[in-house]
Amino acid sequence: MIILIACTVFAKGASEASATGEKKTGTKNALLGPGNVTIKSVYQNVTFDPNTDLMAGLIEKSTGYKAEYFTLPAQNADEKLALEVASGVNYDIIRCSRSQFNMLLASNALMPLNDLLDEYGQDIIAGHTQETWDAVSDKNKVIYGIPYKYAADKEVASFIVCRKDLMKKAGITEMPITLDEFYNTLVTLKKYYGNQYIILTGPYLPATEKNENWKFPKVIASAFGIWGEWMTDENGKVIYMTEAKGFKPMLEFMNKLYNEGLLDPDWAVSTNDSVAEKFSSGKAIMACSSRTGCTTMSPAVIKNVGITYDDLSYISPLEGKDGTCTYMMTEAISSISVIPKSCKHPADVINWCHLKLQDQLYLNFGIEGTHFTYDADGNMTPNNPLFANERGNSYWYCNAMDMAKYQKDWPARIRKSEAQWQCWKGTTIATVNSRDHVFVDNPFKFMTAQENYSKFNSALHTSLNDFVVQVICGSKTVDGINMLEKDLAANNLNQVRAELQAYLGAK
Amino acid sequence: MKNKAIVSKKVGKDLSEKTVSAIAYVYMFLFSLLALLPILHVASKGVSSGEFVTAGLVRFFPRGFQLETLKFIILGTGFLPAMKNTILITGIGTAISMVTTILTAYPLSKSEFRGRKVILFLYVFSMIFYGGMIPAYMVMRTLGILDSIWACILPFAIIQFNMFIVKNYFEALPSEIEESAKVDGAGDLRILVSIILPMSTPVISTVGLLYAINYWNNYFHAMMYTISESMRTLQVYLYNLINTSSEVAMNLASGDGMTNLTSAGLVAAAVSISVLPILVAYPFVQKFLVKGMTVGSVKG
Lengths: 507, 300
Hints:
- The complex is a heterodimer.
- Chain A is α/β, with parallel strands linked by helices.
- Chain A contains 23 helices and 15 strands.
- Chain A has 2 domains: 2-7 and 35-150 and 334-400, D-Maltodextrin-Binding Protein, domain 2, CATH 3.40.190; 158-328 and 419-506, D-Maltodextrin-Binding Protein, domain 2 (3-Layer(aba) Sandwich), CATH 3.40.190.
- Chain A has helices at 2-19, 21-28, 54-63, 77-86, 98-106, 114-120, 122-126, 130-134, 164-169, 179-193, 218-221, 247-259, 272-280, 291-305, 346-358, 360-365, 386-391, 403-409, 411-414, 418-435, 451-472, 481-490, 493-506; strands at residues 38-43, 66-71, 93-96, 146-149, 158-163, 198-201, 230-232, 238-240, 284-290, 312-315, 327-328, 333-338, 372-374, 380-382, 439-440.
- In chain A, the strands form 5 sheets. In chain A, strands 2-1-3-12-4 form a 5-stranded mixed sheet.
- By secondary structure, chain B is mostly helical.
- Chain B has helices spanning 2-46, 50-54, 68-76, 79-108, 116-128, 133-143, 149-153, 160-172, 175-183, 188-199, 201-217, 220-225, 234-251, 263-274, 276-291.
- In chain B, α8 (160-172) packs antiparallel against α11 (201-217).
- Chains A and B meet through α1, β2, α4, α13 and α14 of A and α2, α6 and α13 of B.
């Protein structure tokens, strides 16, 4: 409600502004230059004070512009942003989420950037592909934001981490690649250890993935051809996960694992913390996890049970009997920097972003030889702890980037942490190098806000996850899928599908 | 013989008293554990090594004692400015609220005060019907106090409910005392300061405490009215930390903090030191909280 009223208030102010906009455009595009303007910027919430952080000083020194940083709260961030913008507070740039961008765009709150980028931001334009720019433009190709993409287009973001030392004792020397090998591995471990250990604990639900948080491991779903909640079949038709051929067999497989005692008996009620506790304390041999999860889990299990990183291994997307292996690419826009119409110095804001981009290497990675070095293959290696201490927070200040260059060096940021680097090597690098074909492009990766999708997808997701857990843990059988289908239909499945199909058709 | 009987009766009574006392002590000890153990658990997590915290091996005492997490919370995050802001808001806010509440309640407690009913109606009306967040935000903006401690203080400068408690208390005071003071030549202000307020310490301390708790715990207004990191209050800081702790821990995984900085450890450390001011102050204000249960109410 707050957003709605705030947007209405702003829309009124915005239309008034546009009535005189033509005359003002000339003065608004005038560049005052570094030292003459203080950039007021709004970012997402953070624990440190961004105005006193080392990075603020570095950016000021590099660009010549003084900048003030403000942050949105963790809760009610959308409402807060709507209130701030509607009240006409003079922010120059806002780094917002995808949904916040859509909200501000729908409220007519954003300044078109084409002319400004043409004049002051040629390198910014060159930093992204046309497809990415289209995602932040309207139908008339008017650009309203500067995209910031997630730095890894392909990442095995969710995987299974394993205690290789325990697997070796049970006679397992190779990590499973196929679903059959995986099943045999679990059975062997169960036979060898009995009830001494939980064989596989999970699920692990990364907070950032929201609608992709399923109650079954993605690396198992891959073997059944399942890579997304909404997918397209071979004819380009949009289907929901439950309509995929592999959905029922996947649930039957998971239920079989549960019935045979190969899964954590607490699977239905597990939380990320309980999964981490079981693996870190040495109670589980395998655990569903992610790069974030392993940051604390791996060092903890190493210390608690006295092993090394060599004793940990990772299971990447598994292959099905017919060689099926599909895993969704992680290419996505993580945030968008926008200039509100109330901004008085948009030319300087674009110039500031442009200058930051010019110094991208220094600002995000530091000085070669001091903060990082390049290995023989040209890969950046950070010098820790200096790199982590002095560039650890740089990600928070990013706006415009030369994505190709940034993506090349970005793994150095993972390398800050040995735990993260080990799982990155063991999953993403291994999969990209040997089985790159498993990554499936997400056709909806740059999708703009869709009304029905925004309204109904959460309910669909909840129904799906509830059913999945009930089948895995045996309180329902997979034959009850008819009930789920009815439930999904009642939650407007077909309206969402029609909308997504129309989106793909218009692409 | 008679004396013997009395002695034996007394011994019997002592025994039963002792038994009842023992049961009461055990009972209260167990109940106090219910309150104490969660605090011990959280405090222990804040000073335990990261590997024990992640593995869920910390119960009620620290394991692998370390102070890196506390040090990071105090020096590496916005904890100190947030604590400073909250203390300032609570201190200044409570003082302002007490002045406005007393100065409003006193005249409204006098039946001869003209327009009393209209003013009381306005207070009741505004207590029931709130203007809403956006108008309130616009008022703050127009006053030019957004992103300052005043935006967290002025909306609570007077809370109608508290004002009514004080007004009711003032009304119950014997009017003869005031009349005798007037005979001695005291003006309204002198009567309020020198006669009424000293007689009203129970209600003043209780309402002051209610205001202080309200300012200390206030989250929503601080979240909506401030946007600079340096203006965050303790409650907003804690909420933000809880939401971003895993990101912070991941980001620091190879910095100076290394493995001791875990998501759960950061939150536990921040929560532990956040409650310290309340823990220190509570024994001194506990009696006022109890009085607050009955003060201002109608007694039969």
